[in-house]
Amino acid sequence: MTERAALVVAGGTVIDATGERVADVIVEADGHVAAVGEGLAEGSGLGRRTLDARGCIVAPGLVDLHTHLRQPGGEQAETVESGSRAAALGGFCAVVAMPNTVPAIDSAAMVREVQELGRAALCRVEVAGAITVARAGERLAPMAEMAALGVRIFTDDGNGVQDDGVMRRALEYASDLDVRLAQHCEVDSLADGGQMHEGEWSSRLGIPGIPAEAEEIMVMRDVALSRLTGVPVHFQHLSTAGSVAILDAARRSGVAVSAEVAPHHFTLTDECCASYDATFKVNPPLRPEPDVAAVRAALAGGVLDAIATDHAPHTADAKDRPFEQAPPGMLGLETALALALTELDMPVADVLALLSWQPARIAGLGDTHGGPVAAGRPANLLVFDPEAVWTVDDSGGASRSRNTPYAGRRLRGRVRHTLVAGEPVVIDGEAQR
Amino acid sequence: MSRPTAGPRHLLSVADLGRDGIREILRLGDSFAEVNTRAIPKVPALRGRTVASLFFEDSTRTRLSFETAAKRLSADTVTFSAGGSSLSKGESLRDTSQTVAALGVDCVVVRHRSAGVASQLSRWLDCSVINAGDGRHEHPTQALLDCYTIRSRLGDVEGRRVAVVGDIAHSRVARSLVAALQALDAEVTLVAPATLLPPAVDSWKVAVSSRLDDVLPRADVVYLLRLQRERQDAALLPSLREFHERFGLSAERVARLADHAIVMHPGPMNRGVEIGAEVPEMHCATITEQVANGVAIRMAVLFRLLGSGAAAEAAASAPSGTRRTAQPADSVPADPAPGARRD
């Protein structure tokens, strides 16, 4: 741990859910924001370190609803520490660690183990628990015991809960736990061993396909189950035009659903798989242009609540397998903000809503994360230059893996500083530990 | 290892060849077919070259065909097959293929159950890569030998009506064949139940029918695909018997074909399923010709990729007496290996 000291974030433009203003931000040694206002930097006293934010935006730190930290069991690909470093470099002050580890996070003991690892992380690590034992979709995992340890998101991510009755009971059982159930929407019998989106490209490439309907049917079912039980459902990584249309209709009819989308689903298409490079293999799979356009429109139209990375590290060895045998997933933490700023034709404040305060609320972190940037709040802050142009390299950044699909891509918007509970974990784009 | 910078290095899919490439291979096939009729069917065109068969999936006929072709060109051959190899010790595809390439081979002929493996190897290895079948994707030399067979029997491929019948969805042969037939301006009709058609079949830009009996009278070629028995377990078909009733080419159906029409099958056949038990022995059937033509076509493919400047160099530096210079890559000979070596 580095020494905590009071500091001032000087000369930036603060943007949070309350609006935009030019202001310095004074952060106390206890990790809270002491004051926000113009001209505070001058004469703010000796012993305060200054973080230059001129030309930059100062915002509530980002919150990722969907991160695979791979620990325990996948330490060759990522650890809580390396993943949290990538998160901090990407501007994230909190990440929700998915429970599809080996073994799965489906018990209080497993939650404690990962929470313990999270204490040394560079950002806050929220642990998600599995809905069912071993994510097998059959028996309910002890959600109340895990919730008592602070777990707020439950998901069998990597798998959808296939059985309608099991999902109904899970929603009912969780209804009084102040948690949210999140679904990886994929009907296994329709996905049927598919390895990319089913369509013109899969047909040409001879790769077994997953139809869009494998996702959409489970979205429809869970809308119906949410209506039946009155319990909210959060949809993970929606990827098709049909899914966002179903979501929109459900919203309008008053069903309490929320949804996230991953950056690769608004930036890449299934044509990327033509090289048979498994870097482009991901689940849900990359979709054709009309789906990408629909996802972008849904982001712009406020139909989707969050951008979540689905950061999914895999070793080079795993990604060098034949496309059909390689594991799905791509890195995302260090490119998400810049992709959103570069690719989405949206005001910065709207991008930040999708990456910070809206996901903070879904994750149950609204008290500490997602702003506003105001005196008395924990100093979970991000400082980024919205105009800085940079090129993604193929090193994978701070991740232990390097499976980024964006190597060589030029992006606009770069993280400069990240403060997690007042600690400057990233200064001038460099992780401090 | 020195290697020609110009010219094709790999054969990964039919699209790599284009119409001109296909025609060139068919012409070369004529020359090598002639070689294969000689008392000693062997030429020194690839002497000093090494061709490795890297078969991660069993395939006796394709592997033997490639190895026969390589040997008739006087190349050395090495064989790797998945059983009993280091793959069972957990070695990765990349490590295994790089190990084989490090033996100093000039060309790897690869078969794998997964689509795209030949493409992956072409990125990882310095040598030439020939796709001998990758998952459901492609099997380009099969398509070439099939086009050669059509040309031999019917004179030309252009304008011929070809019905491709059966399990197209899961077939690499179909993907390569349709691409080659389209490049040569044949008229293709896919005939199958919807469960055995590929997704987004409209994008294939071919005619589609589920009525074999309507298609047969107009067909010049009926190409039957192997139907794997597992398909009935995956709810793609009610039964093999029903498939045979609707899509099997029985002897009765053969009687409805035009006199000149031919019946093709890439093998191995399921007699009584996609093809009537007695049909393979009928005059219209080209099944054994396809196998014979396969050797000549694979000789042509190997020669085209490997028999370029570098081969000439190697041949030129060979001990005198047995020396035969292969032709430069840009002047493909009518007879690629005049005066075959007698040994």
What count of domains describes the coordinates of chain B?
2
Helix and strand pattern of chain B? HEHEHEHEHEHEEHEHHEHH
> How would you describe the oligomerization state of the chains in this entry?
heterodimer
**Unreliable spans of chain A:** none
Radius of gyration of chain A: 21 Å
CATH topology of the largest domain in chain B: Rossmann fold
CATH superfamily of the domain at 61-362 in chain A: Metal-dependent hydrolases
Fraction of helical residues of chain A: 25-40%
- Please state the average pLDDT score of chain B: 88
**CATH C-level category of the domain at 61-362 in chain A:** Alpha Beta
Question: What's the helical proportion of residues of chain B?
Answer: 25-40%
Number of strands of chain B: 9
- Between the first and last Cα atoms of chain A, what is the distance in angstroms? 8 Å
Strand content of chain A: 15-25%
Strand content of chain B: 5-15%
Structural class category of chain A: alpha/beta
Q: Given the C-alpha coordinates, what overall shape of chain A results?
A: globular
Low-confidence stretches of chain B: 1-5, 310-334, 336-343
Radius of gyration of chain B: 20 Å
3D structure, described in words:
The complex is a heterodimer of chains A (433) and B (343). Chain A contains twelve helices and 19 strands. Chain A has 433 residues and is of the alpha/beta class. Chain A has a domain of 302 residues: Alpha-Beta Barrel (TIM Barrel), CATH 3.20.20. In chain A, the strands form four sheets. In chain A, strands 1, 2, 3, 4, 5, 16, 17, 18 and 19 form a nine-stranded mixed sheet that branches. A five-stranded parallel sheet of chain A has the order 9-10-13-14-15. In chain A, strands 6-7-8 form a three-stranded parallel sheet. The N and C termini of chain A lie close together (8 Å). Chain B is an alpha/beta fold. Chain B has eleven helices and nine strands. The N terminus and C terminus of chain B are likely disordered. The two termini of chain B are 28 Å apart. In chain B, the strands form two sheets. A five-stranded parallel sheet of chain B has the order 7-6-5-8-9. A four-stranded parallel sheet of chain B has the order 2-1-3-4, sandwiched between helices. Chain B folds into two domains: 145 residues, Rossmann fold (3-Layer(aba) Sandwich); 151 residues, 3-Layer(aba) Sandwich (Rossmann fold). In chain B, strand 1, helix 2 and strand 2 form a beta-alpha-beta unit. Chain B is 35% helix and 13% strand. The chains are: A alpha/beta (433), B alpha/beta (343). Chains A and B meet through helix 6 of A and helix 4 of B.
